[in-house]
Amino acid sequence: MSLSNALGYLTVLPIPFKKHIPLNRSVHFFPLVGAGMGSVMVLSFLAFKALLPIYLACIAAVAALEALTGGIHLRAVAELMDGRRTFPGSGFAPKPEYRWKGMAAVAVLFFVKVNGLAHMRPEWQPFAMLLTPILGRSSQALGIIFSRHRLDSVKGPTDPAVKRRKTRALIFTGVLLCSMGLFPWKAAGILTAEYFVIMLAAYRFLNRHLEGLTVQTLGTVAELTEAGFLATCYALS
């Protein structure tokens, strides 16, 4: 049940998201869902690269990655910029409405991702496509684990099952981050440091200004960590 909730929340798969089940009961599956998405993206990118010019292949790959999520993270960015807020487990408002600020932010992030992927070293591109969704989903798991939740008003001991799942999420994230070893060791160190700097800075800033974790925060931080990772790969190239 917790796996289906993670898939329903993070992917476009037609699995109903059960709002009555707290999202932190599924948090240990977030990095694993990211690994599954990354495996799909590597194969997709190699197919696009064989069929299309490199820039078009990168556009198609980034679009496919966003399509795997159902576009929820880009929607989160747009809604954050437009000033809308919902809370983890409650989903988005039923009718999306986008204004120019939100659309501009989405366009900038998409542009950064495509150009980062297109202009990095060709031998790095498959590794980047594997790691990008892992980093995005892991950032969401870490946000749920460590951020203050506006709805956490009930005082008392932490549910042991939730505590175990949070521990598993940290272990899975740590193991999957070892995939940075696919890059040269200096680049891997810089990319890992960049990931944590962007993630921590974004959560601290947004949680402080929004007085707690929101759905828009989770999606925006995932997009920022992914875009920052691809841009840093390009810079290091």
**Poorly predicted spans:** 151-156
Structural class: mainly alpha
What string gives the helices and strands in order? Answer: HHHHHHHHH
Determine the strand fraction and express it as a percent band: under 5%
Counting DSSP H or I runs of 4 or more residues, the number of helices is 9
Shape: globular
Compute the gyration radius: what is it? Answer: 17 Å
Largest sheet: none
Question: Total strand count, please?
Answer: 0
Q: Give average pLDDT, whole number.
A: 87
- Tally of discrete structural domains: 1
Q: Kindly state the percentage of residues in helix.
A: 55-70%
- N→C terminal distance: 42 Å
Describe what you observe in this structure:
The protein has about 240 residues and is mainly alpha-helical. The protein has one domain. About 70% of the residues lie in helices and about 0% in strands. It has 9 helices and no strands. The chain has helices at about 1-10, 30-50, 55-70, 70-80, 100-120, 125-145, 160-175, 185-210, 215-235. α2 packs antiparallel against α3 (about 55-70). The protein is globular, with a radius of gyration of 17 Å. The termini are far apart. The model is unreliable at about 150-155 (pLDDT under 50).
